[in-house]
Amino acid sequence: TFVQQSSYEFSPDSENYQIISNMKFFTWYNTYAIYGTRDTLILLKPDSNNSTVEIYSYDWPVDQMTMDECLQEWNTKDKCYNDVVHVRIVSNHTKMNVYCTYAHRPMVRSFDLHSMSFINEHILTRDPHPPMDSEGSYVMLNFNTNIITAGYQGDYIPTIRATHGKTLLYALRQNSYFIGGFKYDGKAVFGVIETSERTETVRHKKALNQC
Questions:
Q1: What pTM was estimated for this model as a whole?
Q2: Which domain of life is it from (predicted)?
């Protein structure tokens, strides 16, 4: 893992606006814009005094040994990337946990917001409240100490889960997927694309769950 730091001036014609491809999630924290992509964590910090943006880019590919094991298990590289899917700011606001699908393994890594670097950068911890098996349809919302996760479980069955593995929803069609989520009035609200198994039509649904 290494960091690339750079800055650029605000300009409508700047090529630096093409920062991210294959984005997995986006969130704000204080003045930072935080992006998760395939094999990369990106933080953008604007400086209003001189109209520039500092870019912190952290490359985070899967190590070769883990990649080989993943390829033996799945026989396709599409399952074996490291998609950075979520961050969670720790209560003291000095660290954040970075969640990823490291070669189809739910992992967490700690990041220091003061030093702008990973803590023990070579150490990955398995997510104690695993996300689902999906690298593309994954949404996580924070409710104080409780985490609500929407994604796939087992044989790609769409599922919404709370901390400690409590299942909140287990009734969507197998080929459905989540497209985003937000908190509203004490509830977790998730957008779902539910594709009928009998026809090619797509139905849009909204699932609300009391937290």
A1: 0.65
A2: Eukaryota
